[in-house]
Amino acid sequence: MADEFEPNILGILCNWCTYAGADLAGTSRMQYPPNVRVIRIMCTGRLDPAFVLKALSVGADGVLISGCHIGDCHYLAGNFKSRRRVALLRKLIEEYGYDRERLRMTFVSASEGALWAEVVQDMVNTIKKLGPNPLKQAGAAQLEGAVADDEF
Amino acid sequence: MDEEKRIGVFVCHCGTNIAGVINVKELVEYAKTLPHVAHAEDYTYMCSTPGQSMIKDRIKEFNLNGTVVAACSPRLHEPTFRKATEEGGVNSFLFTMSNIREQDTWVHMEEPEKAMEKAKDLVRMEVARASKLEPLTPKTVPVEKAALVIGAGIAGIQASLELADAGIKTYLVEKEPSIGGMMSRLDKTFPTLDCSQCILTPKMVDVERNPNIELMTYSEVEGISGYIGNFDVTIRKKSRYVYEDKCNGCGKCQEVCPVSRPNEFDLGLQPRKAAYVPFPQAVPLKFTIDMDSCIKCDLCKGEEACGELEAIDFDKPDELITVKVGTIIVATGFDMYDVERKEEWGYKVFDNVVTGIEFERLIGASGPTGGKVIRPSDGKTPKTVGFVLCAGSRDQDEEDGAKPYCSRVCCMYSLKHAHQLIEKIPGVVPYLFYMDIRSFGKAYEEFYYRIQREGGKFIRGRVARITEDPVTKNLFVTAEDTLLGAPLEMELDMVVLANAVVPAESTQKIKSLLTLSNSPDGFLLEAHPKLNPMSTTTDGVFLAGMCQAPRDIPDVVAHAAAAAAAASIPIHRGSVTLEPIYAIVDPEHCGGCATCIGLCPYGATELKTVDDKLVASVNEAKCKGCGTCGSACPSGAIKMQHFTNEQIMSEIEAFAQGW
Amino acid sequence: MKEYNFFLGCIAPNRYPGIEASAVKTSRKFDIELSDFKGASCCPAPGAFGSMDVDAWLALGARNICLSEKEGKDIALICNGCYKSLFEANHRLKADPALKEKINAILANIDTEFQGTIEVRHLIDILYNDVGTEKVKESVEVPLTGLNVAIHYGCHLLKPKFDRTFGSSERPRFFDELVEALGATSVEYKEKMMCCGAGGGVRSYKIDLALDMCNEKLYNMTQANADVIVNVCPFCYLQLDRGQVEIKEKFGDVYDLPVLHYNQLLGIAQGMSPEELGLDANEIDVEPLLAKIL
Q1: Which of B331, B341, B421, B624 is within CB 3.0–4.6 Å of B156 for a Cys-Cys bond?
Q2: With contact defined as beta carbons under 8 Å apart, do B162 and B175 qualify?
C-alpha cells in the first residue's frame, strides 16, 4: 500500500470559525488524514479566485475553502461572497478540465472540531477517487499556463 | 525593502506534544535548507521566558529581519512571539507562526511519518510567507470611558456595580421591566439557605442609586458598531406607556385595572393586571402597561388612579438611544429546558408534575401560595414528593432537545427543595431520583449529608415514566433502582422535574450583533476555557454568568467580577492599539470601477477624486480587515495588509514544492 | 384505486387468517386494493434477527422491499413487527448512503439492488392519513355505540420515535380517533402504552414473565370496563388472546376479553359477518361481544 495515492490538498480557512474549529479538533485529539495544508486568512471573503486557480495550476489535487456558517460571519457577510465565488469557480475549473469536486467550500464553526475532521476525511476520500491533479499526471508540474503567476 | 531577507526559524517541542510525534531536530535541519533562512533552532518550550529570550538573542546574533515560530496555533501564542520579535528589534509583523501542534502532531499522532512531512510543508509555507511580510505600525486609539452591560440578572448587576465602583460610567440594559433576573424568582439559596431576595434586593437598590450606573429596563440592544474602545450602541427603550419620571410606584393603576393575565414572573402561577410590576421588590418600581392585553378602558388614567400625576400615556412611543462605550459585558443569562418535550414525564399533561423553578415559586414566601406547599390538582398538602434530577441534562437524546452537559445547579437546588419540604410539612418524604449527586462547592457535600440525615430518600436511577391515576391525580413513577438492580414503581403525590439550564434564546441576537461564537453546547464561546473564561474573541467584549456556561450563584458572581475587572482594563489604560490589518488602495492602479464599494460590509470604502481622477479609498478606522474588497478588485489596486496577494501566493507556491 | 403489495408476515396467515380477510375486504370500501405479494419471505422478525445481526436483518428486509420495487408498488402491512423490520430498513437505507452500499453488496449475491423508490406503510397509517377518519365514519353501517374498546397500540408501531412518523410515542391519539370513528368508546386504562409482553423474544424465552406482563395489562383493561381489546399487530393479538388461556392455566386469572384486529372491528362496523372476518379462529370466544353489538 506504500504507493497508494496520497492527495495534496490546500485548505484556505477563515481565522474565526474553521481555523478555530480545526484547532479545536487538535485540542480534542481527533485524528484525521494528514493530507491538508492550511493557509489562514481572516475571512473567506479574502478568497481571491486566483488563489484557487494558482493552487490547481501548480498541482494541488484539491482545494478546500472553509469558513463560518452563513449568518455567523465575523465580518457579517464575507462567507456569502466567497460562497458565490466558489460556485462560479467550480464551473470555471471544469472549463480547464478539472472535476468540480476538486474545489469545495464548507462551513465549520469554531465549536465544530469533529465536523472539521469529517470534512477533511470526506474531501480526502473524494480526491482519492478522482486521482491526482491531471497536470501532475501529465508529469508537467511546472505547467502554469492557466494563470499568470507574477502579476496580480 | 530590498534588504536581503534573513529569517530565523524556531521550532518548539511543546514538551512531548510536538517532539513526541515528530523529530524536531530533523525539522530544524530541514528549515535550514529553505531559502532566506539564516538560522534555525529548537527549544523545549518556545513560549517560556528562555524561549522568548532565545528569539530576541538570535535576532541580534544572526542579524535576522524575520521570524517564524513553528509551535502551537497562532490563535494561542501569536501575541507572545510578536512581542518577542518586537523586543528583538524587528517589527512584530515580520513574524509568522506555523501551526504544527493543533493542526499537525495532535491530529496525526498515529501517523508520525506523515505528520513529519506535513510539518515540513507547513514550515516551508510560513517561511515563504515570512519572506514577503512587510513591517506595519499598529495604531493607537483612545478608549471611551464608559461600559455597557447587557442583562441585569445577578451577573449583570454584579458586573455593573464593580465597574461603577471603579469610576466607570456604566449603561445597564435589561429587557424585562425589572432587574433581578432568575435569582429574584428563587426562594432560598443553597447551601446556606439565605433568602434569595434578602441578599439580592440590596444589590438591586444599589444599582438604582449608583450615580455611575445608567439603568435602562424594558430596553433592548438593537445595534452595535465600532470596535474596542469605540463601540456605538443603539438601544430601544420600549414604551412602558408610563412616564418613568412621573410614576411614583403607588400602584393605583394596578388596583383599578380590570384585565387579568398570567404573571410571567410567577410562570403563570398567579395573575397580574395589564398595568403591573412583575414583583413587589421590582427595581425600578415603575409600572408598565402591557399593551397586548390592555383594553384601553382608561380606568387607570381616572381620578381614583393615576389622575393628576398624568404618568400614563397610551401613545408614548418607543425611544431609540445611542451611547458610546469602550467595552461591553454580555450577561444575558439562560433559559430553562422545555421539559414538555420529554413526553414520558407528562409535564403539562399531569397537574402535579411541576418544574424546579415552578416549585421555587410554590415554596417561595412571595409566591402565589405565600410559601405554603400545595399540589396544583387539588390544593392538598403533598406527603410524598419525587424529584427527577437531570431532567434534560446529561442526556444524549438530541431528538427531544436534551443536553449532554451537567447543568450544575439542579442537584443542589433539589436538595434544598427536599430540605424546605421537610421543614414545612411534618412527615413528608422527598424521594430524589438521581444519576450522581454533584455537590462540588464549598459546604455542598455537607449539605447533602444533612438532607440524608433529615430523611431525604435517594434513589439512584432515572425515571423512565410517569403516569397518573385519573381519579386521585396521584402519580405513578416507574424507575430503575440501579443500586438494587431492580425496577420500582412508586405512587407519589407530586413530582418536581429539575429541568436543565439551556442557552437563552435572546442571547442569539446579541451574539450576531457582536459576531461572537457558540461553543458546542450552545453557550457563548470564551477566549480560553481555562485561562480566559470571561473574554471573547471579539476585543473589548466580555462574558459574565450563565451566558457562557451553567454555574451557580457564587460562581456567577465571581465570573461577573472577573469580567468587570477585564472590561475596566482598557478603559483605565485610556487607549488601545489596533491591528494594522486594513486595506489600502493604490490610486495609480485603481480604475474607479467602484466594485469594492458595494462589497464592504462596513461602508469603509468610498470614491474620492485624487488628481482629477475618481478612485476608491479605504477609511482605516472603519475597515476591519476582512479583505473582501481586495479579492474582488479587478485591477489589483487594493492591498490587504498582512494578507497580501504576494504573501498568500508565495505560500501556495511553497505548498507546491512538497511534491 | 391505489394498489399495494400486501405483506402478510408470518403470524397472521398461520394463526389468524381473519386479519388478512378483514384487511382486504375493508380496504376495498376505500378503493384500496391489497394484492398478493409474490415471493415475500419473513420480514424477518426484528427481535429474533435484528437483535442478533443487524446487517442480515436489513438485507433480508431489503430483499422484500426490492421485490416490490421491481413491481413499482408501495407495501402495505398489518403487523407492527413487520412494520419495524421493513419500515426501518427502507427508512435507514434511504437516509444512509454508506449503509445502502453495504447492504447492496450483500444483495448483489442474488442480483438485487435496493433503490429506495417505494414506501412501506402500516395499514393503520393509510387508514388514518390517506383515507381519514371522516371517510371511515361514512363507511359505518352498524355503529358500535356503547362499546368500550381497550386499544393496544403495540411498541414497534411507535418506537423508536426518531424512526417513525406518528409524532407522539407516549400519548398518541390516531388509533383512538379511528376507533371513535366507528361509534365506539376508547377507554383510558392504566399503563395503556405498556408492552403486551410478547415482543423482543420475551414470549419465546421467558413465558412466565411474558404472561405476567400480559396479565397486568389485561387486569388494567378490565378495570376500565373494556368489552374488547383492539390492536394492529398479530403478535400482540396472539399474546393477548392465546395468553388468556395460558394465564388461566398458570395463574388461574380469568378475563374472557375478546381480541380483534382493528380491521376486524372495522369490518363488523361495516356490516360484515363474523365468518367473513374469521373471528372463529380466536381462542377467546367473541360470541358475547357480537351479541352486545348486533
Answers
A1: B331
A2: no
Spatial CB neighbours of B332, under 8 Å, sequence gap ≥ 6: B150, B151, B504, B506, B507, B510, B547
Chains with ≥3 CB–CB distances under 8 Å to B: A, C
Taking CA–CA distances from A144, the nearest residue in chain B reads B653
Q: Which residues of C touch B344 (CB under 8 A)?
A: 170
Domains by residue range for chain C, with CATH: 2-123 (1.20.1050.140), 133-293 (3.40.50.11810)
* Phi/psi-derived region of residue C62, left when phi > 0, alpha when psi is between -120 and 50, beta in every other case: alpha
Answer whether A41 sits within 8 Å of B643, measured CB to CB: yes
- Nearest chain B residue to C172, by CA: B343
Q: Across the A/B interface, how many CB contacts are shorter than 8 Å?
A: 165
Cβ of B658 within 8 Å of Cβ of A8? The answer is: yes
ipTM for this prediction: 0.92
Q: Is A50 on the interface with B (CB under 8 A)?
A: yes
Nearest of B407, B430, B401, B436 to residue B499 by alpha carbon: B407
Each residue's pLDDT tens digit in chain C (294 positions)?
A: 899 999 999 999 999 999 999 999 999 999 999 999 999 999 999 988 888 899 999 999 999 999 999 999 999 999 999 999 999 999 999 999 999 999 999 999 999 999 999 999 999 999 999 999 999 999 999 999 999 999 999 999 999 888 888 888 889 999 999 999 999 999 999 889 999 999 888 998 899 999 999 999 999 999 999 999 999 999 999 999 999 999 999 999 999 999 999 999 999 999 999 999 999 999 999 999 999 887
- Chain C residues whose beta carbon lies within 8 Å of the beta carbon of residue B476: 190
Q: Is B194 helix (H, G, I), strand (E, B) or coil?
A: strand
C-alpha–C-alpha distance, residues B546 and C262, integer Å: 52
Q: How far is the first Cα of chain C from the last one, in angstroms, to the nearest whole number?
A: 31
User: Touching check for C162 and chain B: CB below 8 Å?
Assistant: yes
For residues C208 and C228, give the distance between their C-alpha atoms in angstroms, rounded to a whole number. 24
Name residue B236's beta-bridge partners.
B220, B320
Instruction: Name the amino acid, one letter, at B38.
Output: A
Single pTM value for the model: 0.83
Q: Does A143 touch chain B (CB under 8 A)?
A: no
Three-state DSSP class for B221? Answer: strand
Give the separation between CA B179 and CA B280, rounded to whole angstroms: 12
Select from C170, C209, C212 the residue whose CB has the most chain B CBs within 10 Å, as the one to mutate to test that interface: C170
How far apart are the two ends of chain B, measured CA to CA in Å?
31
List the single residue in A16, A17, A46 with the smallest CB-CB distance to B628: A46
The CA-CA-CA angle for residues B92, B95, B97, to 5°, reads 135
Task: Give A32-83 pLDDT, tens digit per residue.
Answer: 999 999 999 999 999 999 999 999 999 999 999 999 998 889 888 899 999 9
